[in-house]
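[Discussion] Sanity-checking designs against the backbone

I'm trying to build intuition for which residues belong where. Below is a structure token string of 114 positions. I'd appreciate it if someone posts a full sequence so I can compare it with mine line by line.
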């Protein structure tokens, strides 16, 4: 079985879709279009009023994730996430759990609906 661009894109798009859905559940924003093998996660525009220092939110998120051995990048105010073929669903879940932990402490905070 050979890896070609279409197979690589199809494989990685499964991971990016999981990440995309989890980020949206956390109240985060994504670019409306992105390549199947990476995506950018950011605060909504304008940033929620309950975010302290929104201009440093992405850098703080990247630092938080790195301390958990999750390597992403701060690119133009977005968290760039680029899964690779060697990543597993467990890796993706670890990332999603860490991002959730960061958001629980640093926002955005979902408003409970009663």
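Best answer:
Here's mine. Compare freely.
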């Amino acid at each position: 079985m050979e890896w070609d661009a279409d197979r690589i894109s199809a494989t990685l798009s499964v991971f990016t879709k999981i990440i995309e859905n989890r980020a949206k559940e956390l109240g985060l924003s994504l670019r409306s279009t992105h390549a199947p093998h990476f995506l950018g996660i950011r605060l909504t525009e304008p940033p929620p009023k309950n975010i302290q220092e929104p201009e440093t939110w992405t850098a703080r998120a990247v630092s938080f994730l790195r301390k958990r051995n999750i390597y992403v990048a701060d690119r133009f105010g977005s968290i760039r996430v680029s899964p690779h073929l060697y990543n597993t669903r467990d890796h993706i879940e670890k990332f999603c759990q860490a991002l959730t932990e960061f958001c629980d402490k640093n926002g955005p905070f979902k408003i409970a609906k009663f």
